[in-house]
Amino acid sequence: MPNIEIAGTDLYYERRGAGEPMLLIQGLGGNSLHWGEGFLGGLEDSFELIVFDNRGAGRSGALEGDLTIADLAQDALGLLDALEIERAHVVGISMGGMVAQEIVLAAPERVLTLTLGCTFPGGPEAKMTDMEVVGMLAEAVLSGDDERTLRVGYEVMIAAEYGEQEGAYELYSELAGQYRAPIPVLMAQLAAIMGHDTSERLGAVTVPTLVVHGTEDRLMEAENGELIARLIPGARLELLEGSGHMFFWEQPERSAQLVREHATSAAEA
């Protein structure tokens, strides 16, 4: 699969499916594999999907220097430019949802519809991750024990009920263990997240917006999704009962249906 030079780095990307273009943006430490075939498979019959790895992550080029969410948004817009895509549906989850917010604010004319999943807007009303959860993740990552890091990440990212299903951890660990983001990249992405604040600007968004959040999200609690839906005029909020941070992984068919219907209905309108 190809890499393309964008703003001084090589971004890995894939195109699949047919229809109007849909750009999907992953979160902290994530890469294009982490969407899961169940979710992507529910979209590719209706849209041409563009999935990619953020700079420093997955199969993209190394990260050099500091990083901001706005930088990542410019990377994504640069990718659309390089692929000669004028407008696209934009889907972002977690950190990728923050990137999607910056995209629609910087270039609203490029966005057909917006879907924001398990993310937050920053600002004084946002609910940051509980420090106990942050401590668990930090200790696991800094331990250097890969299996411990996977286990703790699984516990935090995945809702307990889904996590107990047979084979669920094995599938998670198989993909999470590939192309793992280096600690410096994780730290740079975390710093970018801490600096993210679109809370006073989201009122200017006029693009049709869907906000999706799992009710059992421990990493980014659901009240953040509720806040975004209040800040963006006309935004629609969907809370997925019993799902954790990776709602699109736990409920791929339902998640794909929500995104597909949102993008299709907006296009028809």
Question: Which SSEs are present, and which pair or pack?
Answer:
Layout: E1 3-6, E2 9-17, E3 20-25, H1 37-41, E4 47-52, H2 69-82, E5 88-93, H3 95-106, E6 111-117, H4 131-143, H5 146-157, H6 160-163, H7 168-176, H8 183-194, E7 209-214, H9 223-231, E8 236-240, H10 247-250, H11 252-268
Parallel strand pairs: 3-4, 3-5, 5-6, 6-7, 7-8
Antiparallel strand pairs: 1-2, 2-4
Relevant terms:
11 helices; Rossmann fold; 269 residues; alpha/beta; globular; single chain
Write up this protein.
With 269 residues, this protein is α/β, with parallel strands linked by helices. It has one domain (3-268): Rossmann fold, CATH 3.40.50.1820. The protein contains eleven helices and eight strands. It has helices at 37-41, 69-82, 95-106, 131-143, 146-157, 160-163, 168-176, 183-194, 223-231, 247-250, 252-268, and strands at residues 3-6, 9-17, 20-25, 47-52, 88-93, 111-117, 209-214, 236-240. It has an eight-stranded mixed sheet, with helices on both faces. Strand 3 (20-25), helix 1 and strand 4 (47-52) form a beta-alpha-beta unit. Helix 2 packs across helix 3 (95-106). The longest helix has 17 residues, at 252-268. The protein is globular and about 50 Å long. The mean pLDDT is 93.
